[in-house]
Amino acid sequence: MTSRIMVIADEPWTRNEVHAALAEPDYTLIDHDDPATSGDVLRSEQPDAVVIDLQVGSMGGMAIARDLHQQAAMAKRESVPVVLLLDRKADSFLAKRSGVAAWVTKPFTAHDIRIAVESAISG
Predict the structure, then answer these.
(1) Radius of gyration of the chain (CA)
(2) What distance lies between CA 123 and its chain's CA centroid?
(3) Could you say which DSSP state residue 81 is in?
(4) Domains delineated in the chain
(5) Whether 62 contacts 94, CB under 8 Å
């Protein structure tokens, strides 16, 4: 079964790294670079998981993750699992507080991101 993964990052190199790591037939990747409209795209695309860069646009990855969780709660549906891409290990504190399913510290290996995404999807 193919998993649909939404990638929210405004830097092309970040999206390229995620694409390179998940370049397998098991994944369909959906790119998005505007945090303000990420909720709308999430509802229309219905991904199985979302990978969000910690530093994206004016909102930041943590705020986007919390917003996605709030929108799901208001709609009384299950929240899509989020994998946060951290800039440094110390940011794991922020990841825990934002309620994400998993996180990876940059620079990450393909194995790191695949394990995080698979863990997020499987719960």
Answers:
(1) 13
(2) 14
(3) P
(4) 3-122 (3.40.50.2300)
(5) yes
CA distances from residue 8 to 54, 65, 76 in whole angstroms, order as listed: 9, 10, 23
Whole-angstrom distance, CA of residue 14 vs CA of residue 35: 15
pLDDT at 67 over 90: no
> For residue 123, what pLDDT band results from cuts at 50, 70 and 90?
confident
Give the pLDDT band of residue 119 (cuts 50, 70, 90): very high
Q: Note whether 56 and 18 are within 8 A (CB).
A: no
Residue with tokens 């709660």: 73
Q: Is 60 left (phi over 0), alpha (psi -120 to 50) or beta?
A: left
Q: Quickly state the pLDDT bin for 96 (edges 50, 70, 90).
A: confident
Is the pLDDT confidence value at 58 over 80?
no
Q: Are 106 and 87 in contact (CB under 8 A)?
A: yes
Sign of CA dihedral 108, 111, 117, 122: negative
In this structure, are residues 64 and 55 in contact, taking their beta carbons and an 8 Å threshold? no
